[in-house]
Design a protein that fits this description.
about 130 residues; alpha+beta; 2,3-Dihydroxybiphenyl 1,2-Dioxygenase, domain 1; 6-stranded mixed beta sheet; 3-stranded mixed beta sheet; about 15% helix; Glyas_Bleomycin-R_OHBP_Dase; VOC family protein
């Protein structure tokens, strides 16, 4: 039943105004509902979307909460860095980043960054 339905991410924000500024200034995204004050809906590629909602629980997850697929990770990272996005560095068993990028055994490459609310976001490319 669910396999044929669209899916969208939901992210917490403890300060919705600060989050709105981050997503606009750092990621170049504008909400689809600009008049909203307690939740923001963002549309992305291929009909996907995500919701930012106001809650004091933001930033408590220690895992990736949302990610974008990239066809040119290096260029997308350069563009984000130019806007002030800082990529995380990790050194865990099975995952080590170099200059913000991890290359997994299957060839997938990914990078992670935090939004203004402490949510862990990613951008990754999957080999074809």
């Amino acid at each position: 039943m669910l396999k044929d339905l669209s899916v969208a991410a939901v992210l917490p924000a403890s300060d919705i105004a600060r989050a709105r500024d981050f997503y606009k200034d750092k990621l170049g995204l504008e909400p689809n509902n600009p008049e909203a004050t307690d939740n923001l809906v963002y549309k992305c590629g291929n009909g996907t979307s995500f919701l930012l909602y106001s809650t004091p629980n933001a930033g408590s997850a220690k895992n990736t909460q949302m990610g974008w697929d990239s066809t040119d990770l290096d260029q997308d990272m350069a563009d984000l860095r130019a806007r002030g996005v800082v990529f995380e560095e990790y050194d865990f068993p099975g995952l080590k980043t170099e200059n913000g990028v991890a290359t997994l055994p299957d060839g997938e490459r990914g990078a992670w960054f935090l939004d203004s609310e402490g949510n862990i976001l990613s951008i990754a490319t999957v080999p074809v």
